[in-house]
Specification:
Blueprint: E1 3-6, E2 11-17, E3 31-37, H1 39-49, E4 54-60, H2 62-74, E5 78-83, E6 89-95, E7 101-104, H3 113-130, E8 134-138, H4 149-159, E9 163-167, H5 170-176, E10 183-184, H6 188-195, H7 202-214, E11 220-223, E12 229-233, E13 236-241, H8 253-263, H9 268-282, E14 302-304
Parallel strand pairs: 1-4, 1-8, 2-6, 4-5, 8-9, 9-10
Antiparallel strand pairs: 2-3, 6-7, 11-12, 12-13, 13-14
Amino acid sequence: MTVLTVTPNPSLDRTYEIPALDRGAVLRASADRVDPGGKGVNVSRAVAAAGHPTVAVLPVGGPEGALLSQLLSDLGIAVAGVPVQGSTRVNISLAEPDGTLTKINAAGPHIGAAESQSLLDTLAAEAASSRARWLVCCGSLPRGLAPEWYAAVVTRARENGVRVALDTSGPALAAALPAQPDVVKPNADELAEVVGRPLTTVGDAVKAAEEVRGAGAGAVLASLGATGQLLLDATGTYFATAPVATVRSDVGAGDASLAGFLTAGGARAQALVSAVAHGAAAVQLPGSQMPTPDDVRPEAVTVTTDVPLDLPLLPDVNGAVR
């Protein structure tokens, strides 16, 4: 099964592990790493780590874009790069021993009209040549792309018989829902934003996910951070949790979770189990490292249709509900 991903605003992710974040001081990292970044890129990395073929479509610019392409190729990921004038962005993460993560995300290059069309054309060509079963559209839209850009991608893919998973937020998510993506993957904050009200319990999240399905999404895979994960699809509503010994970094954990969901079929409880197992494995790895099959423990996941509606949504290690 080939998974095709598109990441309109990819990055190089540099992670530094530090003893503590002390403003104004010279900080010495105990470890550091650089990984290919961007949500769709991370999905491709997780799919490849699980042993499945994947193609990453993305704009690349400058020496940063060249390094990004090389790092992906080294991981066995086919890269369909679209040259752009601006340089690929570099994001910085500062990871502390207690799991607190401070992120600095760059804006990324401006994508012009011709470059936008090249992305769409490349995506269509790769979808046809790879015979992809899933197209995964992920992440924020860069400067120059309208919120409706993902909607156009979803419509075009579905017309050609390709299933679409969408992981974005804000106006881009709202604009894409009428195009009927097969699955969307919001976190709690993104789910609250799209329905326009705060969510404080699992029951609140279920109601919001039902509204998102009513707006056009075939299924909603909602990450609720430390509280657990929800799946609402045509077969029912499921809730799953898994124990995590130590949170080392949550960068890319949601993307690993989406990859686990799709590679397990993208529906029903068994796919949710895989999603939660991949996400739990990812947060225990450094930087945005993606889990391999040896890291994933599906037997540790608890899944139920008896959803704990009154359970409060817990904040993550950074103090925000995810």
